[in-house]
Amino acid sequence: MLIHGMAGSLTTWDPVFADLARTHDVIALDLPGHGTSSGLRDYSLGSLAASVRDLLDALEVETATIVGHSLGGGIAMQFMYQFPERCERLVLVSSGGLGREVTPMLRALTVPGAGLVLAGGARIRHQRHVAAAARLAGPVAGRVWNDLPYMLRQMATLDDPERRRSFLATINAVIEIGGQGINAVEKLHLAAGLPTLIVWGEDDRMIPSGHGHVAADLIPGSRLELVPGAGHYPHEDDPERFARVVADFMATTRPRT
Length: 257
Known about the structure:
The chain is α/β, with parallel strands linked by helices. 46% of the residues lie in helices and 12% in strands.
């Protein structure tokens, strides 16, 4: 079960989906208010985890390995707390919810008026000459900040008012002006006995890879895989390595029953 991050969609898993599907049944979803999914009133982690459970119910899937990227990692952990009997394994990819630190760009989106700024930015980006300039500048910007092209891609979807409202509601549910407002570190002992893999890009500037080290130390028997040269999106920066690591984890661990 693949869960994407904030302002993302199931398409973030496209680079690894086919490789993972060679050996396993793979499900990816658009979270509520993201991609093509309709919105919710409640964007708390508990509500989003329940949405994942509801999808599994609709597909008549009793248990699954839960894989979450960024915000999706926080949802994956919440799913494990709320529905432990449904969670066979846990894979956290550059996960949120494991420490206070997060990029100032996301913290700034919690201040009043952020919605107006996002709306204006999305409109400007869709203008023909601006879009052309962004495409030309993208490779250069990516060398300055490795995750910037991915962020710009996702921010471009926020010209839709409903998507923008959902994004801001999600931001405010998990991030404060001072950093991440939800910290799962004190609950990581609940993952004892659950096969857990933590994957992080060594050059992640959105959420520091040190959060992955902390989580690995607190979850007995967990594995930590740092992806050299990758940023916040290791499954997109190095999809072959990511798929290989996850496939090996699946093959060498037994699901919790």
